[in-house]
Amino acid sequence: MRVCIIGGxxxxxxxxxxxxxxxxxxxxxxxxxxxxxxxxxxxxAAQKRGQLPQYYExxxxxLDELKPDIVAVNCHFGDHGKVNFEVxxxxxxxxxxxxxxxxxxxxxxxxxxxxxxxxxxxxxFGLRYNPAFYTAWHAVREGKIGEVRLINAQKSYRLxxxxxxxxxxxxxxxxxxxxxSHAIDWVYWFSGQEFVSVMSHHSxxxxxxxxxxxxTGLCHFRLTNEVFASVNIDYLRxxxxxxxxxxxxxxxxxxxxxxxxxxxVYLISEEEQGTRELSLMETDGIFLDFARQVRGExxxxxSAKDSFVVTEACLRAREAxxxxxxxYF
Amino acid sequence: MRVCIIGGxxxxxxxxxxxxxxxxxxxxxxxxxxxxxxxxxxxxAAQKRGQLPQYYExxxxxLDELKPDIVAVNCHFGDHGKVNFEVxxxxxxxxxxxxxxxxxxxxxxxxxxxxxxxxxxxxxFGLRYNPAFYTAWHAVREGKIGEVRLINAQKSYRLxxxxxxxxxxxxxxxxxxxxxSHAIDWVYWFSGQEFVSVMSHHSxxxxxxxxxxxxTGLCHFRLTNEVFASVNIDYLRxxxxxxxxxxxxxxxxxxxxxxxxxxxVYLISEEEQGTRELSLMETDGIFLDFARQVRGExxxxxSAKDSFVVTEACLRAREAxxxxxxxYF
Lengths: 329, 329
Prior knowledge:
The structure is a homodimer.
Chain A: E1 2-6, H1 13-21, E2 26-31, H2 40-48, E3 54-55, H3 59-66, E4 70-73, H4 80-89, E5 93-96, H5 104-117, E6 121-123, H6 131-141, E7 148-158, H7 169-172, H8 175-178, H9 180-191, E8 195-203, E9 216-223, E10 227-237, E11 248-253, E12 256-261, E13 264-269, E14 272-277, H10 286-294, H11 304-323, E15 327-328
Parallel strand pairs in A: 1-2, 1-4, 2-3, 4-5, 5-6, 7-10
Antiparallel strand pairs in A: 7-11, 8-9, 8-15, 9-10, 11-12, 12-13, 13-14
């Protein structure tokens, strides 16, 4: 399984996590996807594992010359759409940082190209494979809380120091699509419903000089079957906090409530007294799951449909916040 | 301090909690406020404390004859507006179940009557006096989290068995005003801001035959200073849960995040490493606080303005859910 990596700004390290379990995965080429992007960390990660990927300045040349099986794209977020298009137009399988694009027009073009390509696509919703989220989702799917009625999802991050390209909407895309996408993905994934409408707000206030980067976001989704969901997003987690992120989801159903909080899963259901903490299930991680699908050996937990729908939901949520209007899907 | 109680459907037991600390509080009369309402529990509560309040069929006659200092109103929620009006038009101090009214027109008339009356008003936002919420609010007010930016508040209840009048919007008013009002009050109280707009949804699905009673609600508020807040409300807490309610608030600010969860308060701030649990502060409770204000001895934590503004916010949020529109204040 020959892999190229484009960009050094996202989570292409998923590829190396997969490689550590499956040595048939080879990183054969690495190139920047955005101007001035440093991809050194991925070259190092490959070399540390005894691989010698070729470095290219021009990712298109890399794709044409190396003809990889899978391309992992994680450049500046504003360039995702353009680079992903170059991959799909070459009918190569795409493992892409989320969101797949940062403008609706680009997403539409990309979706058309995907339909034509016959290629497989998965967005890097790697948090689905986090043991706590995976366990909770599995319990919901098994019917432990009955029918899903209400979801609250949270992403809270330490601000830390952010690269220059975060300061500009053009290159960053916005905090709802970047940070919020995971939580919006949980909403979609846990609900088993389709998006109907979204209302959102976001604010750049108190962003410590980070240009147009939003520090807070709040999204309010209506889904089919009168399922409602909130997503709250912030970079307000103090630097002194125990962990970088405080990822949560709470799903209330007709027969119980399940929650992920601090990496643990809590279930209350009509079936048993009190709150029960669930034992965590392990997974092989997102890249191996996607590689298996590419090999025709199964279905990746993150489907192409999921990747496109959640990207659209992110962009519609951002639009709702920009316009202060309800946006319909 | 002579008190009359109208109705038997809400939280007038706050009066007896106050009486247990201050025996100068006397319940002199009790009457139903809605047709067929049983007020026996309050007559019993008074008798258990050696008091013999008079029972009246007609609360207006009771007010005219007994001329109490304070009237506690807690009848069917759809009658709050009408009964509260009768109290204020007699220039009596009003300790009223929330929401103060269940229709905007009633609320407007009531507000005008309040302005004319010279009387004191407090809605029964007794959860402000809950040690955890009070402690968290106190910490926010002391600046422990800097400026408030984002709030998420939750009310989750066991369904249990609900009286007949809950089944009809006319008498019940809706789940956002009834259950959600507390959480909407926390949003207002913790934020220190004014409401700008609200978008909401609610659903009667899976309500186990309870007519028009909504099982879930989700509200999305914009406040001044680009503060955003979500409020999620449900009756989905399983009967097997440890407690009746799962009340929460999370307030993220520019220098920290504070949370109330399971009756405890957790603070992370830039000032200290990791999460700290705060020691809980005690209060005298809402009725004594209001009685002191009536005596001219201080300001009740729940002001008349708070009572009217939060009632309005509840009704606007319900309107947004009914119409699926953004409603502006």
